[in-house]
Design goal:
Keywords: Antiport, Ion transport, Membrane, Transmembrane, Transmembrane helix, Transport. The chain has about 425 residues and is mainly α. It is about 70% helix and about 0% strand.
Amino acid sequence: MTIELHDVFYIVTGLVFAGFTFVPLYGKSMFVTAPILFLIAGALLALSPVALPVIDPLESVLYRDTIEYLTELIVIIALAGAGLAVDREAGKREWQHTWVLLVLVMPLSIIVIAYLGQSMVGLSIAGSVLLAAALAPTDPVLARAVQVSGPLKGEEDDVRLSLTTEAGLNDGLAFPFVHLAVVLAGMSLASYADIKTEELWTWVWLDLLYRVLMGIAAGWALGHLVSRFVFSRFGDAAAGGENQGLVLMASTFLTYGLTELIGGYGFLAVFVSARAARAFVRGTKHESYAAMPHWFSDQIEKVLLALLLLWLGSVAVSGMLNSLSMAELGVALLLIFVVRPVLAYICLLPTQGSRIDRGLIAMMGIRGFGTFFYVAYAQSQSDFDNIESIWRICIVAVILSIFVHGMTSAVGKRVMGKAKQE
């Protein structure tokens, strides 16, 4: 009997999807999570005699684009779900930790990571900025384990709220620095003195200001427009809400596509659009409508997550990391264990809340598939001399994050539970 690769694909994928339904088997474990198991499964599959072809983004344009589009898709689905999940309205005090994480921690992280990339690994100026922009954001996909449960479900403590809203907003706000890396790569810099001021000012007003503001404005406007239609006499709510999943996909894709079309940041717009939809129904009889679209986003996200975890596990053992240097490993370790925890904890000191909450928020800066999207996107826009090194550092950092944050998230939940009881 001949073993066909497409048969292996369907069998393995089916088993992985089924694995997400086995939560009771490992849900009580302190150190085992679904992403860890599926990551290991992907590695074992790649090492088996029936291994599927490995999608190496450095091997071909097709493979690079495949990773770019799949990671882009899972991020926008995760952002829509995160925006729908949060019950608490945005405010200076209500989201105090979020604002600190966005305004202080992320920019400082970009500066430190860029410095480490240059000083330890020898990356170019453009390469170090790309590495920093890709690794600075908290991932909205893998951070689901420490985010709020969903609309109207409660459990919206400061830790879960802060991590959810940070992940929802910082992906869009990191994009300006990905564009900065692309701009710098086009300058062929030998030193900082070679940076062209005119192009830098164009980046400031276009990529840093216009695209961010347009992402926020378009997301809010489209969120309200879609909500008005959905809850009108012609919309899905009037028809009994039978197409809530389709409503989610339609609104998410329309918001993302239209915002990108007019030059705004689609990631930012998707999250803001979902927040606008929640604001539209807050306090009305339709408020519970958000539960089903959120559930649907969660299911779609798990499907894509399973496939991407298999890919990550396979690419990690396929030879892509064979040239990993101690310096590259050191940058990844410093990011996970020092840069994010220390910077975040220091910046959060003036905020309200317990030391335990601030410590957990600082520690749980999970890195994930948004990182791979940024690198693949930048790679498609310009040539980076150190792109292999950037991919290796990012892959190791995300794998470390899956293990470290996956194992410590259960510990964090128990700590929070004990703190509440006391």
